[in-house]
Amino acid sequence: MVQDALNEGEARMKGAVRSLEDDLATIRTGRASPALVERLNVEYYGTPTPLMQLATISAPEPRLLTIKPFDPTSLKDIERAILTSDLGLTPNSDGRLIRLNIPPLTEERRHELVRVVRNRVEEGRVAVRNVRRDILNDLRDFEKEKLISEDEFKRGEDDLQKLTDRYIEKLNETGKRKETEVLEV
Question: Disulfide engineering: 51 pairs with which of 40, 65, 80, 147, CB 3.0-4.6 Å?
Fold first, then answer.
């Protein structure tokens, strides 16, 4: 019973780490990465659709992204979505292919992005702590209902804390890696 609760907690904590990694992939660094735009929603026949479902995205050079739509009629919609996004990029189109030049980041913008990274990591930590709180409440309920003994509760509490510490450390490492990437010139 305790182990089931811990397994559920670990699965939810893994989800928080995965969510942070996906979130951080969309933050712009000095080099071009398809992850920068692949989740960008494009209004396609009245439906918001992720760009990665509408086009092939590649990074042929360190500061260039190319987007080749599967359906050439969606080119204008993709351009509009890029222009209205908060990426600050201007698409260049030749009628079949969109080129996105990734300009180098200014020092001020890099520090701004580091603050964004730190905020997202903190949100991840809060999510992990919320999972810990929920699982701890479950364990307390088990103890009150006499499903587990006091000793099992204490052991479960200690194991839960170790699990929480491990996932918070993973979140911190992920954040540090992204900060280094953003500050890299």
Answer: 40
